[in-house]
TrEMBL record:
One of its GO terms (molecular function) is blue light photoreceptor activity. It comes from Puniceibacterium antarcticum. Residues 3-93 form the BLUF domain. It comes from the Bacteria. This is BLUF domain-containing protein. Pfam families: BLUF. PROSITE patterns: BLUF.
Amino acid sequence: MTYLRLIYASRPVDYAPETLGAVLAGSQRRNIRDDITGALIARADLFLQMLEGPASLVDQAYARIRQDPRHENMRLLVRRETQWRLFPGWTMREASDTEWIWTPEQVAHGLPAKAPRHEVEAIFVRLWREGLTPPARRFTLRRKSLL
């Protein structure tokens, strides 16, 4: 099966980490319905998100996300077909401790939009590797049941 992999970057507006849980819960419910998986990196200076799934549904989700007033300066970094998903068991994996990606100064100077596609995808490969051994039996809305 062919999937669409889409990665975008944006700048949060009035970012508050304590509200991220509610945002993720809503997106996870929609992603279960639409067979979309992926990951979201959320920091005060950066949203970096990968969506994977059926092309038309990923495009619809991206159009919906573009209308969300909680972020601005959205840039599409990667949009390509793939035969496999990086996050097949995750309706939306969340990562916040990600200073290893780009510094706030690099983000402020527009580095995410200038980064080569392979570098952007490598960020999510690292998250995938880190997620291969999730905490014991922690299945929430974030992780699709594998049963």
